[in-house]
From TrEMBL:
Domain Tryptophan synthase beta chain-like PALP positions: 22-328
Record PTM N6-(pyridoxal phosphate)lysine, positions in chain: 61
The name this protein goes by in its record: D-cysteine desulfhydrase family protein
Entries under Gene3D superfamilies matching the protein: 3.40.50.1100
Annotated organism of origin: Actinacidiphila oryziradicis
Transmembrane segments: none
Length: 345
């Protein structure tokens, strides 16, 4: 078996720095200790605060947009297209990033159960100057984005599509999360994490996995998927591995990451995407009461529910160092007030 060359943090950083990038995020984000929760769980718990990237309530997409939108500008784009659920964190952060960079942004949110009343992320979208073109909840987002791109080209525009169905942007998102792994290691050079958990269905996990391989770390990564495999945005372990391979190629390195190296779990989805699970709501309340840190009900709440269960069930051994990558999404809390308050009764 061929061994992949390992690199130093500075060597990987040099390769990342060679990829075109714009400045949007407040980096590095904090890596916060959780002393109360660590004592309770008898594991050292830390949270990588990518909810604190600083642009329109922050979140993991801000650091990814630094690479995606640099690529868009280099390609001569004058507008950007994205679409997802009404409470999309990606759409909100993209609208803010495009406003900062002077790019027009077109959003095609689904008219789902969280599109009315206008609240949370969807409210913020309306405040950031985005052109919002809603679609039916049953309509394909990827197909509508492709159609809109053609319509805009016919009008003489130069659109750049991000998110599901736009592989290059997803690969650039993975590059951004190699950077995140470097930040984690720099923050705790003498306490490399034994485990990293995150709520992710793609680029975030791919980048973290690649970063660990390039540094030769034994860290175990668990991607807690917030959606079932029949969801349009779901990426399989094979597809996540392909994103890691694409990011490696972009950085000029080799990788042996294949699907069997990718650990994702559907055990914490609950009913479906966009519906908070009982475990997610418990996780939100538990972390909030223990450490004063909030999670969102769609992504990070489910991700942290996975971390808690792994620790409580003994799958994470006592004494291990565990990092949770907080991907943000906090504006969505205000769209789920009924579900969150119902759990108190």
């Amino acid at each position: 078996m061929t061994h992949v060359r390992t690199y130093t943090v500075d060597e990987i950083q040099e390769r990342i720095d060679a990829v075109p990038r714009v400045s949007l995020a407040h980096l590095p984000t904090p890596l916060d200790d959780c002393p109360n929760l660590s004592g309770e769980l008898r594991r050292t718990i830390s949270i990588k605060r990518d909810d604190c990237t600083g642009l329109a309530f922050g979140g993991n997409k801000v650091r990814q947009h630094e690479f995606m939108l640099a690529d868009a500008i280099a390609a001569g784009a004058d507008c950007v297209i994205q679409g997802s659920a009404a409470q999309s964190n990606h759409s909100r952060q993209l609208a803010a990033a495009c406003a900062r960079l002077g790019l027009d942004v077109y959003l095609v949110p689904k008219l789902d159960e969280k599109s009315s009343p206008v609240q949370g992320n969807y409210l913020v979208d309306h405040l950031l100057g985005a052109t919002i073109l809603p679609i039916d909840a049953a309509q394909s987002t990827a197909a509508r984005k492709a159609e809109l791109a053609e319509e805009l080209r016919a009008q003489g525009r130069s659109p750049y599509v991000v998110g599901m169905g736009a592989t290059r942007s997803l690969v650039l998102g993975a590059v951004a999360y190699v950077q995140t792994l470097l930040e984690i290691v720099r923050a705790r050079p003498d306490a490399v994490p034994d485990w990293i958990f995150s709520a992710t269905q793609g680029s975030t996990l791919a980048g973290l996995q690649l970063g660990c391989e390039l540094l030769g770390l034994p860290t175990r990564l668990v991607g807690v998927c917030p959606m079932t495999a029949d969801h349009e945005a779901y990426l399989s372990p094979e597809q996540i591995a392909e994103l890691a391979q694409g990011a490696a190629q972009m950085l000029g390195v080799s990788t042996q990451i294949t699907a069997d190296r990718i650990t994702t779990t559907l055990d914490y989805v609950g009913e479906r995407y966009g519906v908070p699970s009982v475990a997610a709501i418990e996780a939100i309340r538990h972390l909030g009461a223990a450490e004063g840190i909030l999670l969102d009900p769609v992504y990070s709440g489910k991700g942290f529910a996975g971390l808690l269960d792994y620790c409580r069930a003994g799958r994470v051994p006592e004494g291990d160092n565990v990092v949770f990558v907080h991907t943000g999404g906090l504006p969505a809390l205000f769209s789920y007030s009924e579900e969150l308050m119902a759990s108190q009764t």
